[in-house]
Amino acid sequence: MKLKDKVAIVTGAGSGMGKAIAVLYAKEGAKVIASDINRENVQAVVDEIKAAGGQASAVVANVAKEADIENMVDVALKEYGTVDILVNNAGIMDNFVPAANVTDELWERVMSINTTGVMRAIRKVLPIFQEKQSGVIINNASIGGLYGSRAGAAYTASKHAVIGLTKNIAFQYAEFGIRCNAIAPGGVETNIGSTINNPDPFGMKKAMSGAEFNPKNGKPEEIATIALFLGSRDSDFVNGVVITADGGWTAY
């Protein structure tokens, strides 16, 4: 088992990539704090893990709320005594709204979930990792954080920020035995599309202009294997890296 007795927090674990990561981590021996805004979904994931003989606890959390993030990490400490791995997976789309049409409300909502929540979770675990002189942070970014038009202005900016934060933390905290990497998925079959409501026609047309070049959509389980690699000793010398996982879409 690659993660035997490790304690891992996974946000957005109620479905999609977060669920796949939580299930795989537990299968590989981790004690998982599965966090999600949807109580029913995340409890179902925990029940599935336990039925398969794994260890997991459900925490309902809205990553846009600092108190929820504080509680999420505190539960991990109470239940399992420490934290070894943090997977920041939770995120939302932005209706493909271009810069000319983006509202402060939309901008702040996307940033609070996709970027500020990531920063706060990292901020909360860093003292734990520094004391242990070890720890792994994995941020689920997007090819939208590497290129200019895979979504609207807010989502694109939020994921670029996550990648910048990833590299900053990787370098500045490497001396403490802390690693921070990111995954940049392309098209993956998840329910993040459910966060899209009345997409902006202009923005969506621009963002989808390269969709015809996408060879295939991935499965959440395919992203989970990358998260396993980054969370395990197999990637001990990998730090500050963004792994693109898009089936070759952005290679054209």
From TrEMBL:
It holds the Pfam family adh_short_C2. The keyword Oxidoreductase applies. Coiled coil: none annotated. Keywords: Oxidoreductase. PROSITE patterns: ADH_SHORT. InterPro entries: NAD(P)-bd_dom_sf (IPR036291), Sc_DH/Rdtase_CS (IPR020904), SDR_fam (IPR002347). It comes from the Bacteria. PANTHER family: DEHYDROGENASES, SHORT CHAIN, ESTRADIOL 17-BETA-DEHYDROGENASE 8-RELATED. This is 3-ketoacyl-ACP reductase. It comes from Lederbergia galactosidilytica.
